[in-house]
Amino acid sequence: MLATRRSVVTRQQISLSRERSTGISGSLSGMNTPDPVSPPLLETLAQTVLSFFPQPIRATAQAALPDLRVLFGRLALEVVDAEQHTLPYAEAIRRPDFHLMSRVYFGATDLLRSQVPPAIRQALRPMLEQAVRGEFESVRSLLFALSRDQTSPEAAVGRFFWWCALLINLRIQTWDIPEVETLGVLRALEARAQQQLESLLETSETDEPDVRPLNVLLAAMLTEAQELAGQLSKRVLEELGSRALEEVLVNAEALRVTRTLDARSAQTLEPMILEPGLGSQQIVDRYGHLYSSVRAMENKRSRVLDKLSQGQRKTTDDRFIDLVRPYAGARK
């Protein structure tokens, strides 16, 4: 993997982020990073988010909170184990012995392509608008402060969620530039994202009320992504030749097609493009919420390929990515 210059979050980047904050960053960081074991905080977060939803949805979510506490407790064990063994999150999520970390990361990423029912869309829009206006800053500041504790399992889960949120935001920002992913830029930045996060957690300036931590991180990572894309393109061309670069572009076009599909269709194909060595069982392990078995996944893949070969591409605009992008200022 191409070595990149080591950069840390600087005061200048913090200052720039204040001026160029991206709204969806606030949403994903402030509302998807609950302290998994502390009941008061979990209850506060639940009340903050669920207040936007209809009563039946609130009741269902409240009933699920005890199970969520147990699940997050198990996740904490995995994250602490990874950190104690100095295993980067980017490696842990691809190992079978860190099953929950894998499910959380790939499940959260896949959420972007999940179709959002009308009732949920109506609730999410005002919530996103308030996040853009910075109305969840107190919750986000608390979560970031809690994530600094190096002795707390709950803080470890917080750090992992911040890392997930940063990479999801980076994917949202580059959604229309699939070359960034087929060149290997996003994969290369997974480890850098953790380093940047750890650097920012040590920075006291993030305690200031006008600093949005995830926006600071995202600004730094977008700069690195742009630099790394140029470096990797040059390396592919110089070391592997124009045919290899053409393959990157062909894969990018294939990825562009999968990004118009719903989650269950897209994930039968996208892993084959980005990780050719990934087997069917590994795909099912990652996306168990989509496929009940290897046979179910492979049958779905065959149907999707048949429809695409016949020019039958069913696109949709009711996915989570379609809802959040107007608030994200995604790059094209």
How large, in whole angstroms, is the Cα Rg? 20 Å
Uncertain stretches: 1-41
The major β-sheet equals: none
Q: What is the first-to-last residue Cα distance? A: 26 Å
- Secondary-structure-based class equals mainly alpha
State the helix count.
Answer: 18
Strand-and-helix sequence, N→C?
HHHHHHHHHHHHHHHHHH
Question: Helicity range of the residues?
Answer: 55-70%
Q: Which descriptor suits the 3D outline?
A: globular
Strand content: under 5%
Oligomer classification: single chain
- Overall pLDDT, averaged? 79
Query: How many strands appear in the DSSP assignment?
Result: 0
Describe the 3D structure.
This protein has 332 residues and is mostly helical. The protein has a domain at 11-241. Helices cover 69% and strands 0% of the residues. The protein has 18 helices and no strands. It has helices spanning 11-19, 23-31, 39-50, 55-84, 89-92, 99-110, 118-132, 137-146, 153-173, 179-182, 185-201, 213-240, 242-258, 263-266, 270-274, 280-286, 294-309, 320-328. α1 crosses α12 (213-240). The longest helix has 30 residues, at 55-84. It is globular and about 50 Å long. The chain starts with 10 loop residues before the first helix and ends with a helix.
